[in-house]
Amino acid sequence: MVLEATMLVLDNSEWMRNGDYTPSRWEAQSDAVNIVFEAKSQSHPDSAVGVMTMAGKGPQVLSTLTKDLGKVVAAMHATQISGAADLVSGINVAQLALKHRQDKNQRQRIIVFNGSPISDNEEGLVRLAKRLKKNNVAVDVVSFGEDEENDSKLRSFVETVNSGENSHLLTIPAGPRLLSDIILDSPILMGEAGDGAGPSGSGGGEGGGGNSFEFGVDPSMDPELAMALRMSLEEEQARQRASEDAAPAVAAGAPAATTTSSGPAQVEPAPGAAAVDESEDAMLQQALALSQQQKGSG
């Protein structure tokens, strides 16, 4: 049994209203979340799962790492369907949440549900994947709804982040089988103690008004995570200001990025690679800051 901290990143964009998956993309995804949560929680007594969304006015943490499924279901019922998904920012916030987990013995994993077109370019996703791999974060991606359009980008992302077969891309076309059943039989949950676990209730709804907390985290529920996320954002904003002049020079002298992800991982970083990673971190945090500003003014 694997001891893990897992963040589930959900797609709550307008595309989730489509009814090509039974009964809708959002409801199918919500039922799958119940299955994944139960399987992960049962696989090890000290494993924990958190849930967040990546659309609307910005990424929001619905539930910090927990073993309480009821807490997750309640949070999802209060989730709004709106806007477009921001995959990179969502994964970035999930990584920050895992970084500040209380039990450092837990392996880090992110499971992304994506059911809408991905606006991020492939090069940016590959850079993000390399950083996640460097930080020992495994990533599983469940692609549904817009799977053909997103296949190339997601395949490159997963092949890059993969280390020892710890990451998977599961593409699920619309069909008669439930999304949750396919995930239960997939490599994502292979080896988990999820045998016989069915949906334990209906998924989240589209009603409710969400919350007004920064990053969607209630400081009274998890003050350490809320503070850590805020400090990480402030630190990256400072690094962004410091690297504004240096980043263009580094980018100008760097070779063109390759989108080939089937080869072996890089052994030695190129000169200036650390500066490029730092610049990318800063840009992601800047995008996240903008989304939070929009949330505050909305």
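(the above was protein one; protein two follows)
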Amino acid sequence: MNLNLTPFQEPRGVMRVLQLIFAICAFTTTANFSVDYQTDCSDLPKPTTWNIDYPFKFYENVCQRASNNESLAITADVSTDAQFFVATGVLAMLYGGFIIFVYAFLDELYKSKNEIPLADFMLTTIFAVLWLSSSAAWANSTSALKNVLDPQYAIEMCKHCRASNSGFNGLHSSLLLGFLNFFLWASDLWFVYKETYWFQTRQGPSQTPIS
């Protein structure tokens, strides 16, 4: 096998490198994100902090007032959507690394076998759909998570409690990366399609005009 960098001078090769990089960024940003939730209840001697992290499935009784039976609990389970998003990123990374290897070392085989570009096109389509669906689901779950950890929610549920959180910038970044990955995989469909025999058959043999 000889290293061939010619495919990476074409859009299909460049897109694969970008897909690999941004897939890694998307799932690591999500899996490594955590938010600190702090409550200050008048029945407790000092504020208490809880750390909420991936996969974002939790139930915490953050304040209990024995004097008037008031309590504040925060609970959410968005683990399914979080794991779906992360799994999409991991699988996209693995496939991206694999197809980069094929382009770099097996490009002649890739172009000589009709089945390989066709399989590449099909899998690219599947990953575009996965990125769209997982990003949409994760956006919905992120909204639910932010609502539960909203300090205003604590005030509404327990008037003697005060709460704060450390922010959700990491989640916002993961959502942007998710939809960016969808754009990268969807826009790559045209470049991969041009390698299939479907496109090449439609083009037909070149015609030389008769003078």
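Reviewer note on protein two: Residues 7-34+79-159+168-201 form one domain.
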